[in-house]
Inverse folding.
């Protein structure tokens, strides 16, 4: 059975929801976040990290949009887990998103649990965590909040917006909502809508969380419980979808765990079982169960064409943004066909677009990994766009 | 949240585990079932259905092997759900497995919960359901028990053994264990081993069951609880793997349930969510949670080549059985590559084998559905084999 380890203090993670160990901007009553659900979220806050230096022209800002279970800690030690940032292969000095050259902004999305306002944050009206009283948010809401952060930082136009998976959805939404503020856009392993199968997998994860009696209708923090088993099951199921069959086969095959033969029991006999259980346990240590519900829901609702009478190309009409669309051959969650649909719409809208399908067996998670071809393409695309934008090679 | 409906009496289903409404054979202390786990299961019973009439030569018997969540009620009304049999498109008068021509035997597998001995059955040593004291069983154990049933029915050689998915695993095991007793074998949507991804999906389902506090270490029947939420989550997740992305898209797309717009809530907004919740609820009404653990485990352990020093062809050495291997283009759980591996091994063993990959978007579940090409191929193959076997067109 999956049991959470005792290495991380859950109250420490909960505190992070309101008092994160990263920079923070608070928006008061004068600056509400207008949500798609027709509610104003106010007050609210955005936690973020920055790396590198903004140049005098304020023209070298790169916005990083994180995926479902990511956060602002893209290129620094994580304050809760103590692990390396989730995108250190991509972001840093001399990396493709070169912090010697670009001013990198990495916000935590609204609805998440690492310092931007979400269901784990204290609801000022009650003094308790929001829980399920938190309004349902959308990808567009996340992007609207990020635009307020960018305003706050005094940046008019982003040199680039980059992200994979749910991050890629935000990139596409940025290009659609604020085309004049995005010079270059890089949606990786993304789609303009969540498919029925994707929604189905998310729904199973949500039901796993909500089936845990410790979830308590979302009031677990008030009641002192923790739906860690339900959330671990949700994570285990989701994790399978992030990898390819081939990658699982290569990594684990049918190898037994520390044993030569089956134990004829329900222990984690196979290595892949032990690996999944570990994924479930370690996720629960750093993530809030209600946030998981809200962010999966935001992805399910995402449908860029639906906002434009069903014509995807209209989402990008008259865009001046340069696009670099990247997919991975073994990604069955956001398959290449979804990226092709993006490219076709961009072509129909007359946009500048380059497209690469990268050959790998690593599945959807490939965008997070040290994939040489991915790193080379992002580096090359940003260098080319930087030249057009007139960015110097090194920040003055 | 998933809540079970009140339409079916759970105690009725539990009673079915020991006193099924179908024929039954009990094996006493003189005939134990020798399990791969090196334990003797004794006493034990096999519940089964038969359709049609055994001919005088006893040469027209067809054994049907059911899948993970199937049972003996292939072609009759189900005594618990009141629904049609699970393979009425395939089995019946004038159907491809023609009950006017063949004597069809459809047993419930050992470890299941519809009358063959399994974890829901009463353990004679305690007077309570076995629960997790039931020994872990394998596909080979299921087949061994079926062979005892066939002996009991006075049948030496089966004209055909047919089954899909876990049923297909049993078909392959029959051909490997008792080649002289199988004239023709039809493994559908099958594999000779469970892949790492398959094991991973099963493990998530098991963890969902075991995470439900009502599971009580498998003692729920004794304690008067019911891990229905955990089992429903397991079923929902598994059900996605039985369908293709294309089929989900065709059936549901991103259509909303009875509404024109998102509700901005965690209700079943999308039709696919509502459908999955229904699948979870209706499964719980007819299936035992511990049986789900045991049968998924049996599938995980299945590895026919491992029993032959890693050389699959050796499993079928000198076989006289005729094989008809069938896969489905959109089946990503037991993809065509797995069926090809079976065919290659059979070719290497010099066996008679025909192979068909059927074009369909219906995914793994296609073997259960009214697929005209599937029905035509099974009909044709059995007619051809029947001619070789000297079966008359109609039973005398």
């Amino acid at each position: 059975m999956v049991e959470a380890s005792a290495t991380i203090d859950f109250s420490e993670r909960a505190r992070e929801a309101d008092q994160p160990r990263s920079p923070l901007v608070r928006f008061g009553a004068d600056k509400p976040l207008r949500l798609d659900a027709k509610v104003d979220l106010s007050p609210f806050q955005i936690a973020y990290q920055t790396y590198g230096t903004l140049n005098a022209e304020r023209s070298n800002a790169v916005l990083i949009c994180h995926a479902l279970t990511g956060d602002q800690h893209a290129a620094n030690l994580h304050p809760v887990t103590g692990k390396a940032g989730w995108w250190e292969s991509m972001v840093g000095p001399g990396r493709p998103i070169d912090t010697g050259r670009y001013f990198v902004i990495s916000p935590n999305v609204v609805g998440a649990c690492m310092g931007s306002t979400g269901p784990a944050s204290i609801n000022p009206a009650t003094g308790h965590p929001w829980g399920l009283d938190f309004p349902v948010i959308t990808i567009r809401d996340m992007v609207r909040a990020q635009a307020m952060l960018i305003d706050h930082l005094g940046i008019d136009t982003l040199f680039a917006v980059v992200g994979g998976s749910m991050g890629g959805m935000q990139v596409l939404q940025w290009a659609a909502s604020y085309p004049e503020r995005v010079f270059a856009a890089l949606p990786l392993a993304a789609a303009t809508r969540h498919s029925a199968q994707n929604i189905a997998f998310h729904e199973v994860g949500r039901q796993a969380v909500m089936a845990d009696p410790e979830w308590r209708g979302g009031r677990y923090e008030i009641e002192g419980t923790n739906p860690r088993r339900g959330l671990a099951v949700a994570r285990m199921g989701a994790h399978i979808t992030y990898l390819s069959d081939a990658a699982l086969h290569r990594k684990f095959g049918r190898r037994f765990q520390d044993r030569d033969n089956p134990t004829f029991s329900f222990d984690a006999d196979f290595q892949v079982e032990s690996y999944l259980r570990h994924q479930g346990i370690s996720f629960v240590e750093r993530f809030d169960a209600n946030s998981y519900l809200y962010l999966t829901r935001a992805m399910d609702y995402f449908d860029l064409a639906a906002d434009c009478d069903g014509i995807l190309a209209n989402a990008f009409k008259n865009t001046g943004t340069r696009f670099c669309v990247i997919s991975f051959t073994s990604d069955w969650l956001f398959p290449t066909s979804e990226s092709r649909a993006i490219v076709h719409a961009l072509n129909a809208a007359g946009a500048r677009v380059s497209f690469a399908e990268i050959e790998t067996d690593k599945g959807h998670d490939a965008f997070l990994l040290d994939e040489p071809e991915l790193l080379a393409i992002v580096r090359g695309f940003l260098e080319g766009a930087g030249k057009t934008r007139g960015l110097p090679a090194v920040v003055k």
In short: Chain A has two domains: 16-195+313-389, 199-296. The mean pLDDT of chain A is 94. The domain at 199-296 of chain A is CATH 1.10.1740.110 (Rna Polymerase Sigma Factor; Chain: A). The radius of gyration of chain A is 21 Å.
